[in-house]
């Protein structure tokens, strides 16, 4: 806008100069006419002066027209170019915003699909690799659920990672439905009542990367609150994605 105002100011200045030139020329014509008034061939001289004046007016009008046209065209070209550049910039920004939004939606869909795929899974850690995995897993689950689990409830068992000496790979266990999994996970406190063979095992949900990050953050916060309190226990409880930090009374020995 500042540039356009500047150009209009320059145009006005040029028009002013042309007007001054026209006044000067008109004055000169009048002087010539006064000097020639006393001559006998006034009619011929007058005709010439009239022609001269008309030519001057025409020349001035044409010059003014050219100046105005040139500047207006130049101004219009710059306005159009500025509008085009602004529109181009807006289109690029819109395209980038849509691209980012599309990637976010795509990421959300992938995460939702991954969560859905893992929601029936249970992770079991530190179970010895010597023996029948499924038989021992069913035994553990029956203990936790008062025999509510049977062989059909466990549809897949998989050891994760490469086998190593003196190391027990974690087990991925896929249950038939979420309900039976929830029953197992709600009774984890019974693990401590198992015999020595299963004394060191632990169970957890099969979490996505984002869920593990979220859980770790909540556990760290619970530890801070517990350290600051001194009189209460703070534990993270709830299903994946809906965890909460619970304040529990500390059991005094």
Describe the structure.
- By secondary structure, the chain is α+β, with helices and mostly antiparallel strands.
- The protein has 3 domains: 113 residues; 88 residues, Alpha-Beta Plaits (2-Layer Sandwich), CATH 3.30.70.330; 47 residues, no CATH class.
- Helix content is 61%, strand content 13%.
- The protein has 5 helices and 6 strands; from the N terminus they run ααβαββαβαββ.
- The chain has a 4-stranded antiparallel beta sheet with strand order 2-3-1-4. It has a two-stranded antiparallel sheet with strand order 5-6.
- Helix 1 packs antiparallel against helix 2.
- The longest helix has 77 residues.
- The protein is elongated, with a radius of gyration of 46 Å.
- About 2% of the residues have low confidence.
Task: Give the tags.
alpha+beta, 5 helices, Alpha-Beta Plaits, single chain
Give the proportion of residues in helices.
55-70%
Could you state the oligomeric state of the chains shown?
single chain
Give the H and E element order. HHEHEEHEHEE
Strand order of the largest sheet: 2-3-1-4
Helices, by number, come to 5
- Low-confidence runs of at least 5 consecutive residues: 39-43
Give the DSSP E fraction (strand runs of 2 or more residues): 5-15%
In total, how many beta strands? 6
Molecular shape: elongated
For the termini, the CA-CA separation is 80 Å
Quickly give the structural class.
alpha+beta
- Structural domain count: 3
Largest sheet: 4 strands, antiparallel
Radius of gyration of CA atoms, rounded to a whole number: 46 Å
Arithmetic mean of pLDDT:
77
């Amino acid at each position: 806008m500042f540039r356009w105002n500047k150009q209009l100011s320059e145009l006005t200045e040029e028009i002013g100069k042309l007007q001054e030139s026209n006044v000067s020329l008109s004055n000169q014509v009048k002087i010539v006419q006064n000097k020639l008034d006393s001559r006998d061939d006034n009619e011929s001289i007058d005709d010439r002066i009239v022609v001269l004046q008309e030519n001057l007016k025409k020349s001035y009008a044409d010059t003014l027209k050219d100046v105005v046209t040139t500047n207006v065209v130049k101004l219009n070209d710059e306005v159009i170019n500025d509008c085009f550049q602004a529109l181009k910039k807006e289109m690029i920004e819109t395209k980038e915003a849509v691209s980012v939004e599309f990637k976010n939606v795509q990421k959300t869909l992938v995460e939702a699909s991954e969560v859905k795929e893992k929601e029936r899974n249970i992770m079991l850690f530190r179970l010895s690799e010597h023996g029948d995995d499924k038989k021992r897993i069913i035994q553990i689950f029956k203990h936790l659920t008062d025999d509510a689990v049977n062989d059909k409830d466990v549809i897949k068992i998989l050891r994760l990672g490469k086998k190593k000496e003196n190391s027990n790979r974690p087990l991925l266990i896929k249950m038939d439905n979420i309900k039976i999994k929830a029953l197992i996970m709600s009774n984890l406190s019974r693990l401590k009542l198992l015999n020595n063979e299963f004394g060191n095992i632990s169970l957890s949900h099969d979490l996505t990367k984002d869920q593990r990050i979220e859980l770790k953050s909540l556990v760290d916060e619970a530890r801070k609150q517990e350290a600051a309190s001194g009189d209460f226990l703070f534990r993270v409880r709830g299903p994946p994605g809906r965890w909460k930090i619970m304040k529990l009374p500390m059991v005094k020995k």
